[in-house]
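FAQ
Q: What does a multi-component entry look like?
A: The components come first, one per line:
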Amino acid sequence: MELYVPILVLAVLAAGFAVFSVGIAPFTGPKRWNRAKLDAYECGIEPTPQPVGGGRFPLKYMITAMLFIVFDIEIIFLYPWAVAFDRLGVFGLVEMVLFIVTVLVAYAYVWRRRGLDWD
Amino acid sequence: MNNPAPNLSDFGHDPLWLSIIKALFIFVFLMVGVLLGVWTERKLISRMQHRYGPNRAGKFGLLQSVADGLKMGLKEDLMPRTVDKVIYFLAPVIIAVPAFLAFSVVPFGPMVSIFGVRTPLQLTDLPVAVLLVLATASIGVYGIVLAGWGSRSPYAILGGLRSSAQVVSYEIAMGLSFVAVFLQAGTLSTSEIVAKQAGGGTWDILGMHIPTPSWYVFSLLPSFLIYAITMLGETNRVPFDLPEGEGELVGGFHTEYSSSLKFAMFMLAEYVNVFTVSAIAITLFLGGWHAPWPISIWDGANTGWWPMLWFFGKLVLAFCFFVWVRASLPRVRYDQLMAFGWKVLIPLNLAWILLAATFRALRLPEVDRGGILALGAVIVIGAFAIWLRFDTTNQRRRERKAAEVEEEFEQLREEPTAGGFPVPPLDLPHYHGVVPAARLHHEAKEVTSGSN
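Then the predicted structure of the entire assembly, as tokens:
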């Protein structure tokens, strides 16, 4: 745990600075009320009404997020394997080849179903 | 060469006051670094574009960033009516804090003595230090998403989504490019990775001792190249600066943050992130704080406080690389960006990792080399066969698409309304090709600007 204390110190420092800057921002500048100024900026046209609690977004981004999770977990499996490689020897190599081939099957499937194409 | 390189057991013994001093140093270093970095970037890119750049505030415009920071503080802090107040205030904090945190595991130098305490020039180190860096980068993405989401403006939300999709996509390639380094070093701790890059072996050719380079950039060049690309994508820098594609999304996820101190947080985080990825590149691939070759002949180069100088030198060079790329390359298209990350970088990376692992396995003592080579051959042939199959499928698809386009073109050429829209025929002659000479002389009358 001792190893993490300095990180906490730096976190407190950085958070203090960031909260201070964001908190002081409303008080350092002038205040001039203007109705149009408080609209969402859309290059001058009337702002599109946005639903409360957030609107909808293209499904494409969710697919990207799901793929990201799949591959991120694959990376997490690769790290301990890489660190312990010299101890595992050939067994580790064969196991990892099998693992990567398994993931590649899913990868090829996604590619084939055009999950990686943007439009 | 005896290196007082610290390892994991040297950490965790600092008294609290020393940790505070180190943390303060990192904080101040990053703040001053951002001020000077912005100035360096503007100055350097100006010279590359035959301009002067900032040269009014202070000598050589050195105080330009300070002036800009002050100006931001004195601007009106706008908050659009539509925003989600809590998220809107939290997002700049969420994006700024993890940016600083990643620097806590970056090694600045070897063991030194500060006020009588022997301590490494590094805030702390963990058995999973590189994971901490990746984790902080991931938390930074929350800041981007929430800034876009909380602003409740179409530009901001699109910019936030785009930016986060890009960052997570390139994070995969980035994480994969580290694997070969861990394979070589056998550890995730940054200080030990740096220590492993200390002295290379020697080749004995014809009685001469030729020192082999020990930095991983030489032995793991493909990993380094992929990392160099992903660090541009990860920090949203040119040529991957889509989130701020000002022609389409205004400012992207921070459109609604006017120009106050909240916006300053985003800018700060962006530059700190550039420093972080550069520092990680230096730590994992460029020998960390070790002196580069001609200097490393001097015995004292890697002792005491000197390594900090080498580290800063490398950091400045890495930052200049970012600026150089920005001055040289155009912005890529979004679908190209995603396709490059997912379809090129990831398979290349995986193949390279397996190759590196095979080489590593061949050099282990007491292994069945024939077996490994046979396995490797099978994999290479298999991969080639799959690639061929993929390639022919893609080729066929491309041909079919080209034929479709050709067909549609022909159809439109014959019948302008074929697609349901009144499309003008594609082979209409341009009007300037058919203006009769007579009309040109008698009727054409120049309308000068300003007359109405």
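Q: Is there any commentary attached?
A: Sometimes. For this entry: The CA atoms of residues 48 and 54 of chain A lie 13 Å apart.
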